[in-house]
Amino acid sequence: MADPTTAPDRADCVTDIDGLAALITSCRTCPRLVAWREKVAREKRAAFRDQEYWGRPVPGFGPSDASILIVGLAPAAHGANRTGRMFTGDRSGDVLFAAMHAVGLASQPHAVSAGDGLRLIDARVTSPVHCAPPDNKPTPAERHACAPFLTRELELLASTLEVAVVLGGFGWQALFGVLSQAGWQVPRPRPRFGHGAVVELVHPDGRTLTVLGCFHVSQQNTFTGRLTPAMLEDVLTHARRLAGLTSESS
């Protein structure tokens, strides 16, 4: 059996999205993250004490031929670390999926569990770190260890991906680091994160990718009004236009 602590090293051998998800789910590379995610899953939050927590790394989800990739930060301890699906089961996800549904990128506005019927349309959701970190702060070493998964995900989406919407400065830094290593012509100095930021990239093989910045859908931003539903919908609508999705799907 393959060593689960070396899972990121095998990412470039995976040939499809399902295989990548399986590899991510098996990973035990970062001792601090493994200990934390499993501790949270054992102890649980009182409101979820009757539920079985996922307690493992959380892979991205959405169609394997997505034209829009939404990049977050990491799973929430009692959200995706509980439900096993990105942005599912917490208030950040409530905001994100409501906006995605409003612009035609999700089949429903709510996400409460991995089996709730939510289907993403022309879009995929992922993150640079796949385990819930203490205080929502992965270390630089943990970010580096997880990077091969995002690198491979981008490679597997290469034939259809047109736009990346990055939620927050951490995801922005992580994504540009991965893109630079993958050969994309990233400007120097690297573009600064900002809500509404737009960066056009070109790969030596002729592919193009537009990266859009958006404030993260954290409660710190949504409760204070720094990020409103309208602001998020505007960014997602811009992403749809750039990806050539001129009419909303259902």
List keywords for this structure.
250 residues; alpha/beta; Uracil-DNA Glycosylase, subunit E; 35% helix; hydrolase; iron-sulfur; uracil DNA N-glycosylase activity
Structure explained in plain terms:
It is a single chain. The protein is an alpha/beta fold and 250 residues long. It has one domain (14-242): Uracil-DNA Glycosylase, subunit E, CATH 3.40.470. The chain has helices at residues 17-26, 31-43, 80-83, 91-102, 140-156, 169-181, 219-222, 229-242; strands at residues 68-71, 123-126, 163-167, 198-202, 208-214. Strands 2-1-3-5-4 form a 5-stranded mixed β-sheet, with helices on both faces. A hairpin with a 5-residue loop joins strand 4 and strand 5. The longest helix has 17 residues, at 140-156. The radius of gyration is 17 Å and the shape is globular. The model has no long low-confidence stretch (mean pLDDT 95).
Summarize this entry quickly:
The protein is an alpha/beta fold. The protein has helices at residues 17-26, 31-43, 80-83, 91-102, 140-156, 169-181, 219-222, 229-242, and strands spanning 68-71, 123-126, 163-167, 198-202, 208-214.
